[in-house]
Specification:
Structural class: alpha+beta
Mean pLDDT: 91
Distance between the termini: 43 Å
Number of helices: 4
Number of strands: 5
Low-confidence stretches: none
Helix content: 25-40%
Oligomer: single chain
Strand order of the largest sheet: 1-2-3-4-5
Length: 141
């Protein structure tokens, strides 16, 4: 694992991240476009963490902190690189970021149908809360 590097994404990385998510992420988000990730990067340039091995992008996680809560999105590891500790390393880096910012609890958006990911989240110490339901409303404009 010593050759694994985790750093914040740069603006130049963003198109490659979008391509990576098409291969490695489960499902698509309404904000999975260049304008969406550029807004994320402009607002919080350290939120999108990238894992690289040998210079190749092998994993991502968005570790967003709004000043009150810590939110995890887009934990994705390349299908050929899974079960090598990359997801765990990304979660550890995200949690270190949250702690440095004063965060006290992290939550993650995990698709119910993405059962292969559930084990990874459980291994990281996360669990579903059955007393919450996510309510959403797409915004136009």
């Amino acid at each position: 694992m010593s050759d694994l590097r985790i750093d914040a994404a740069t603006v130049a990385d963003l198109p490659a991240v979008l391509d990576f998510w098409k291969v490695a992420a489960e499902g698509a988000s309404i904000s999975d476009d260049l304008a969406g990730v550029e807004r994320l990067h402009a607002r919080d340039p350290d939120a999108l963490l990238l894992a690289r091995r040998g210079g190749a992008l092998v994993g991502t996680v968005i570790a967003g902190f709004d000043g009150w809560r810590c939110h995890l999105y887009r934990l994705a590891v390349h299908p050929e690189r899974r079960r090598q500790g990359i997801g765990a390393a990304l979660l550890s880096a995200a949690e270190e970021r949250f702690s440095a910012l004063g965060g006290r609890r992290a939550d993650a958006m995990v698709l119910d149908r993405n059962t292969p990911a559930h084990g990874a989240w459980q291994a990281g110490g996360y669990h579903p809360e059955d007393h919450w339901t996510r309510w959403v409303k797409p915004l136009n404009g």
